Amino acid sequence: MSDPLDAVDWPVRTERLVIRRATADDAEALWRHRRLPEVTMWITNGPSDLEDFRAHLVQPERLATTLVIELVEPGGPLVIGDVMLRVEDGWAQREVAELARGTEAELGWTLHPGHSGRGYATEAVRAVIATCFGALGLRRVHAGCFAANEPSWRLMERVGMEREEFSRKTGLHRSGVWMDGMHYGVLAEDWTG
């Protein structure tokens, strides 16, 4: 099976950022922010140490869907975050299932807290959505988060995604608390960039 992200001419560049596909060599740079409690509290998989994270990152499915966010600086690029971009099938009835293959994408992201508040995550996610609707030719992009993760759902709203679902106590947080969830999406036909 071919990799749908091969259709993109990587890296994707914005005014301040470079977004590129991750490699196994990115583990240490990504671990610098993914290990922080304020990041780990919201992500699905919070590895306990660098070697655990490296083993997680190099799994073929994870490495194929991880994009690195680099800040362009005079001394060279600085890794400040990552975006998960997973192309997937849309839901369809059996007779038309083939037409729904590879038509959607799920997004997720992290950003080093030391770089928050400057619009970098918004800039990166907006560029990834544009890539989904441009080079990848997808019809829909969606993302979800715990409702308590206000910065994440506010970012979804800033980039033009609409709230599609609010679910009560739908996800068990690693703290042992069942938390409310939120899901957002945007269609190619509604995307304004």
From TrEMBL:
Q: Where is the N-acetyltransferase domain positioned along the sequence?
A: 17-184
Which InterPro entries does the protein's record reference? Acyl_CoA_acyltransferase, GNAT_dom, N-acetyltransferase
Q: What PROSITE patterns is this protein classified in?
A: GNAT
- What Gene3D superfamilies does this protein's entry cite? 3.40.630.30
**Listed name of the protein:** GNAT family protein
Q: What is the lineage of its organism?
A: Bacteria, Bacillati, Actinomycetota, Actinomycetes, Micrococcales
> What top-level branch of life does the organism fall under?
Bacteria
